[in-house]
Design a protein that fits this description.
Layout: E1 20-24, E2 27-29, E3 33-34, E4 45-46, E5 53-59, E6 73-79, E7 88-94, E8 97-106, E9 111-120, H1 126-129, E10 135-149, E11 152-167, H2 172-175, E12 181-199, E13 202-224, E14 230-255, E15 259-279, H3 296-299, E16 301-324, E17 327-338, E18 343-355, E19 360-371, H4 375-379, E20 390-402, E21 407-424, H5 425-429, E22 441-461, E23 464-485, E24 488-497, E25 504-515, H6 517-524, E26 540-550, E27 554-555, E28 558-560, E29 571-573, E30 580-581, E31 585-598, E32 601-610, E33 618-622, E34 639-642, E35 647-655
Parallel strand pairs: 1-6
Antiparallel strand pairs: 1-2, 3-4, 5-6, 7-8, 7-35, 8-9, 9-10, 10-11, 11-12, 12-13, 13-14, 14-15, 15-16, 16-17, 17-18, 18-19, 19-20, 20-21, 21-22, 22-23, 23-24, 23-25, 25-26, 26-31, 27-30, 28-29, 31-32, 32-35, 33-34
Length: 656
């Protein structure tokens, strides 16, 4: 879930968004979103075409030894094959973009293809809408598959996501807003192939591919000279690219007809490049512990350029034991290593599921998980090079009960212990010496998350479907910190709410599908004429809704201070981390789909109202500088930044 309308980053059970892994047809993909944040798993919208997805496996913890290098969750997507016998497709236009999906068989082969392309078009209306800046994006996806023989199947898939946003302060509309000129571009891509071969009572698969995420931005300072001419000067740019080549080999074999043996190895060469340049003033000089920046004040320039490459490797063994038909026990062990840091970790996993009867089942799971730090964290300071991998231990137990053939309720509790989490040395000593700035980390932070989740699911039956999910959780961080006690500097452990300590989370999804025959009968009467302009007379109608509630996320407030009043910094962070919380988040969306059939074709019109109650959800607070005047009554007031209010989207889709 997420509490931000502008990103779909995955946050699971108190873990951070960087602890999530997405896999597509066996290939690990760094980020599948438009306008991605390279340090997270999120972005405003997904670049994956959901029409191509055949199966989704989402694990929120206790996952098997097949998966590694992540602490919280796994999203494993399997793409379907195209229709070998028919040429099919979809053309869709919506509020912000238009796209096309195509599929069919490959002539003279036993193969098929899937192909999609989508492009935004708001940038084409920039002048008509008088917009100083608009986002531009496009994405493309394909899959080709072929059965080379009855026992061998080869498939290939590709994904490319491209984004660009430009804020041009040289234009009249933007100049009045005091904007800077910003030109930001990024792209992410993935290309992989999978060879699957049946072998006796099992199969082996070989996956080879590459995933990459790249971004760049240029920032220009815009001002007027003494002649009134508008001048634009570049004062910062950044370029970064991270590429992961991958080779995965997985083996699955059945033994004793009921048991299964699994094994696999992975090799992932990683290359990373980072180039930053900016103009800095004397107040911006960083007092780094490596003493490498005194010349910045003289040159007024800062340049950080690095290129590194290294190898991640992993292997796993696991065995599924079925002593009786109703009991399944899965045990395994995984090894993960990163040559760059020199750290190698061994992680045991164990889980069991018991089907007590046709309706009731229970499960337990334990697992140890490790995750390497990001390259940028390793490179930010020479002392970070040998930091150990982050660690998390999961303890999970749950029960599931089948109320009816289409309705299931489940209850699950979990406990997670984190250790070896990196902590900034600057944060540790910030209350003692605020002028010390460093990018060195120490692996001394711990975290504990625990909670219970209830999930009720109604599959499509009697024309309706729905889900209800609720979780109560608590996440606490413990970190060492220096402070003064009786004028003596001491080190003590401080415990406080974790960054993603969402206590209450609830989501309700409901949909009802019915025939449009009754509506058409209504339209035939004299009092039903007014419904003709609306998309309500289709052959198939669906109304669906989604409601989300998330209790307030903790944050560290800033305090107005008169210290250092001659500088620009009039706000300071509180010494009590995460001591305040944002207001609770809630949002209701309602969607209407109307579908007409004509021969083997169909037309769908969809309309959606998001944030129906126009709730003013807060993204963050800003702390603007104000004159130092104690007579100002609201000198300590923080300004909220609101998320999206009520808005409507819609579109038309043609299928054949």
């Amino acid at each position: 879930f997420t509490q931000n309308d502008l990103t779909n980053e995955v946050i699971v059970r108190g873990g951070s968004f960087a602890e999530h892994l997405t896999i597509i047809d066996g290939l690990e993909v760094d980020n599948i979103n438009h306008f991605p944040d390279p340090t997270t798993s999120g972005g405003p919208m997904s670049g994956i075409n959901i029409e191509f997805i055949e199966d989704v496996t989402f694990s929120t913890g206790g996952f098997s030894a097949k998966y590694g290098d992540r602490l919280s969750s796994i999203l494993d997507l399997e793409l379907r094959d195209g229709d070998k016998d028919n040429f099919r497709g979809q053309v869709e236009t919506s509020f912000a973009s238009a796209g096309v999906n195509l599929e069919g068989g490959i002539p003279r082969t036993n193969g098929s293809y899937l192909l999609s392309f989508r492009r935004s078009y708001i940038d084409l209306l920039k002048e008509q809408l008088s917009l100083p800046a608009v986002p531009y994006f496009w994405d493309s996806q394909f899959k080709i598959s072929s059965e080379l023989s009855p026992t061998v199947k080869l498939s290939m898939f590709g994904l490319y996501v491209k984004d660009w946003v430009k804020i041009d302060a040289m234009e009249e509309g933007a100049w009045s807003r005091g904007a800077e000129t910003i030109n930001a571009k990024d792209h992410s891509q993935a290309l992989g192939s999978r060879l699957r071969m049946l072998m006796g009572r099992g199969f082996m698969e070989l996956i080879i591919g590459r995933s990459e995420i790249s971004g760049s931005y240029d920032i220009f300072d815009v001002y007027e000279n003494i002649l009134g001419e508008r001048i634009s000067d570049l004062y910062a740019f950044a370029r970064s690219t991270e590429t992961t080549d991958q080779v995965h080999v997985n083996l699955t074999q059945s033994t004793r007809n009921v048991d299964q043996f699994f094994a696999g190895v992975s090799l992932k060469p990683i290359s990373f490049s980072h180039d930053v340049w900016l103009i800095v003033g004397e107040d911006d000089v960083v007092n780094s512990i490596d003493a490498s920046t005194p010349e910045i004040a003289e040159n007024r320039e800062l340049r950080i350029e690095s290129k590194k490459s290294s190898l991640k490797y992993a292997g796993y063994l696991q065995y599924r034991w079925r002593p009786i038909q109703s009991l399944s026990v899965l045990g395994g062990i995984r090894v993960d290593g990163f040559k760059f840091s020199g750290d190698v970790k061994i992680a045991p996993r164990l889980s069991a599921k018991w089907k007590i009867n046709n309706r009731l089942s229970c499960s337990i799971a334990y697992g140890r998980y490790y995750q390497a730090l990001t390259i940028i964290e390793y490179l930010s300071d020479d002392n970070n090079r040998n930091l150990p991998h982050k660690r998390s231990d999961h303890y999970i137990g749950g029960v599931s009960y089948l109320l009816t053939e289409s309705t299931q309720i489940s209850l699950e509790g979990y406990l997670k212990y984190y250790s070896n989490l990196p902590l900034s040395l600057q944060w540790m000593s910030n209350s003692v010496n605020r002028t010390q700035k460093t990018f060195q980390y120490l692996s001394v932070k711990n975290k504990e998350t625990r909670g219970v989740e209830i999930f009720l699911q109604q599959k499509l039956s009697d024309n309706w479907y729905g889900t209800l999910a609720y979780s109560f959780a608590k996440a606490l961080t413990t970190a060492p910190r220096y402070d003064y006690v009786d004028s003596v500097e001491v080190l003590y452990d401080l415990t406080f709410p974790a960054d993603y300590d969402y206590r209450d989370v609830a989501a309700i999804v409901f949909g009802y599908n019915f025939s449009g025959l009754s509506v058409r009968k209504f339209q035939k009467h004299w009092y039903g004429w007014w419904t003709f302009p609306f998309p309500v007379g289709g052959d198939e109608l669906t109304i669906s809704s989604r409601f989300r509630y998330v209790s307030g996320r903790p944050f560290t407030p800033k305090i107005w201070t008169y210290e250092d009043s001659e500088s620009k910094y009039l706000w300071k962070r509180s010494d009590d981390p995460n001591s305040d919380r944002y207001p609770a988040y809630s949002k209701l969306d309602i969607r209407w789909d109307c579908k007409w059939y004509t021969g083997g074709r169909s037309i769908i019109i969809f309309l959606e109202a998001q944030n129906v109650f126009d709730r003013a959800n807060i993204t963050e607070y800003t702390y603007p500088s104000r004159p130092i005047d104690a007579s100002i009554p609201e000198v300590n007031k923080k300004d909220p930044v609101f998320q999206l209010g009520l808005f409507f989207v819609g579109g038309v889709r043609f299928e054949w």
